[in-house]
TrEMBL record:
It comes from Clostridium collagenovorans DSM 3089. This is histidine kinase. PANTHER family: HISTIDINE KINASE, PHOSPHATE REGULON SENSOR PROTEIN PHOR. Its main location: membrane. One of its GO terms (molecular function) is phosphoprotein phosphatase activity. It comes from the Bacteria. Its EC number is 2.7.13.3. Keywords: Cell membrane, Kinase, Membrane, Transferase, Transmembrane, Transmembrane helix, Two-component regulatory system.
Length: 338
């Protein structure tokens, strides 16, 4: 708060003080008060006014400077009332109490919004679990009948199940709570589980799977990681080439971390598209030629990896390969998230 702005705001009061001093001096003159006494009274009045203005300016300056400084440092501006002190001047008290009322109203609105989102999340998760039951039953029925037509229907049901699962993890990725549990997982078992889940479409497209030198033990949430790897494999299948398609898995230890590489020899990704592959709904050049592309798979992989402390990146060369690498942290991170 600058003195110039304060004085501009107090110009009426200061003008009234000057007029009042002039009137008092005029009355003293009319009553023939000696000049030395008149000057003394004038100096006394000026001293009082200067002290009053200085005190008022300093307390308001301290409050508003602290207010603006704290407000500038806060990410969530509505929390300002939690850190500022109640001022001792009337304008500041009105501002403070008004902010308290506004803040209370905001908290109530946020709480209602949280409850609404929580109810919606619970409903979606319940719906997903319910709809997966008839899907699983249909898969079981079809599994016992293997004509070509039935196989095609089963592939479509598997696609539906994949999209339903995608919705489930999309909802979970938006939730601030920890739906996950970081613990020791067998990476090879998770990979094998995902491969088994996709075995029908892998066989139908003649895609070879190669699992080599995969570390057995990593720290992660097994279900979340299974979903992430499944999304990556789904992309590899979707953008595979007709000639000798394959998907390879391997891991390496580097600087105390474990890195899983999932690589295919499919269509690859344009260099210009690589920086945006994790963007929501981004399908790129390959996706524009594929009606089943949603642009949500890698977006969700990135979101979920961020939540559980993994790092994911994509490297690719057009028509040669695409490699997705997931880096797993070690004990230090586990201690934090546990």
């Amino acid at each position: 708060m600058r003195l110039k702005y304060y004085l501009q705001n107090k110009v009426v009061h200061i003008s009234m003080y000057i007029v009042l001093m002039g009137l008092i001096q005029f009355m003293l003159y009319m009553f023939k008060v000696p000049s030395p006494l008149m000057i003394s009274i004038l100096i006394l009045m000026l001293t009082f006014i200067i002290l009053e203005v200085t005190y008022d300016y300093n307390r308001k300056k301290d409050f508003f400077n602290e207010f603006l400084e704290n407000l500038d440092q806060l990410d969530k501006k509505y929390l300002i009332t939690e850190i500022i002190k109640k001022p001792n001047f009337i304008e500041g008290k009105i501002i403070y109490e008004s902010l308290q009322d506004i803040n209370k109203n905001i908290y109530e609105e946020i709480e209602q919004y949280k409850n609404s989102v929580s109810d919606f999340k619970e409903y979606i998760e319940m719906w997903i679990h319910e709809v997966k039951i008839p899907i699983a039953s249909s898969v079981l029925i079809l599994h016992n009948n293997k004509p070509d037509t039935v196989k095609k229907v089963q592939l479509q049901i598997n696609r539906i199940e994949s999209y339903v699962e995608q919705v489930l993890y999309y909802v979970r990725s938006k939730n601030a709570e920890k739906d996950y549990l970081i613990k020791q997982c067998n990476l090879k078992e998770i990979i094998n589980s995902v491969v088994r889940k996709n075995k029908d479409i892998l066989i139908s497209k003649h895609i070879a799977i190669n699992v080599e030198d995969v570390s057995e033990s990593i720290l992660s949430d097994s279900k979340w990681l299974e979903f992430i790897i499944n999304q990556i494999i789904s992309n590899s299948i979707k953008y595979s080439k007709d000639e000798s398609p394959k998907i390879s898995f391997r891991s390496e230890s580097k600087e105390g971390k474990i890195i899983l590489h999932i690589e295919d020899n499919g269509l690859g990704i344009n260099k210009s598209d690589l920086p945006r592959v994790f963007n929501k709904s981004f399908t790129g050049e390959n996706g524009r030629g594929n009606s089943s592309s949603t642009g949500m798979g890698l977006y969700l992989c990135k979101k979920l990896c961020n939540k559980i402390g993994h790092f994911i990146e994509v490297n690719s060369e057009k028509n040669i390969f695409t490699r997705v690498s997931i880096t797993f942290n070690c004990d230090e991170y586990y201690k934090d998230v546990r």
